[in-house]
């Protein structure tokens, strides 16, 4: 195996972002398969563009959910701040996504986002025949659980992430803390 694909990992402090569409199973049953996949493709293209712009590393798509890590494999001392800014940009882009959906005759969709910062084990996980770069640990599970509390249009962020991101993340356009 090439060195980049060797099985192994390291423990790192990272920021983990989970996003998920709300009511997507219900919507998938209303649309025919081709229309649903076309709608999902457009949504994912928009979100991937934003995640890449904020230097997030997409680890997986689980249906319409997106699993992203900030700060790995490349270190980023601003991973918490970047993850929160990315989440805000993702939610703002949903207006454009829904304008496109309505023009296509598709329903509006809504997304929830959960973010947490903490240590995780990251690396190439699997076997010699099948492996992928992924993360494991209680902080990954916690980020997923935070997502579970979100409704459409919401971003929930752990206090660990807010502490890492700093107060500027809480400022509105006028510079007032919210």
Low-confidence stretches: none
Structural class: alpha+beta
Q: Care to count the β-strands?
A: 6
Shape: globular
Overview of this structure, please?
By secondary structure, the chain is of the alpha+beta class. Helix content is 40%, strand content 30%. The protein has five helices and six strands; from the N terminus they run E-H-H-E-E-H-E-E-H-E-H. Strands 1, 2, 3, 4, 5 and 6 form a six-stranded mixed beta sheet that branches. Strand 4 (110-126) and strand 5 (131-136) form a beta hairpin. It is globular.
Give the secondary structure arrangement, pairings included.
Layout: E1 8-22, H1 24-30, H2 33-53, E2 57-62, E3 65-70, H3 79-104, E4 110-126, E5 131-136, H4 138-148, E6 155-157, H5 159-165
Parallel strand pairs: 4-6
Antiparallel strand pairs: 1-3, 1-4, 2-3, 4-5
Helix pairs in contact: 2-3, 3-5
Notable traits:
178 residues; alpha+beta
Summarize this entry quickly:
By secondary structure, this protein is of the alpha+beta class.
């Amino acid at each position: 195996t090439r060195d980049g694909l060797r099985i192994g990992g390291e423990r790192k402090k990272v920021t983990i972002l989970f996003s998920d569409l709300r009511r997507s199973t219900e919507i998938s049953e209303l649309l025919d398969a081709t229309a649903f996949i076309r709608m999902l493709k457009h949504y994912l293209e928009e979100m991937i563009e934003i995640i890449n712009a904020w230097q997030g590393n997409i680890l997986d798509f689980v249906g319409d959910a997106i699993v992203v890590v900030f700060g790995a494999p490349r270190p980023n001392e601003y991973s918490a701040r970047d993850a929160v800014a990315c989440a805000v940009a993702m939610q703002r882009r949903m207006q454009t996504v829904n304008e496109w959906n309505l023009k296509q005759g598709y329903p509006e969709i809504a997304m929830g986002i959960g973010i947490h910062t903490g240590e995780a084990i990251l690396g190439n996980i699997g076997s010699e025949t099948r492996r992928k770069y992924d993360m494991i640990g209680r902080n990954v599970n916690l980020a997923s659980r935070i997502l579970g509390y979100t409704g459409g249009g919401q971003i929930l962020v752990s206090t660990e992430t807010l502490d890492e991101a700093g107060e500027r993340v809480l400022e509105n356009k006028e510079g007032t803390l919210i």
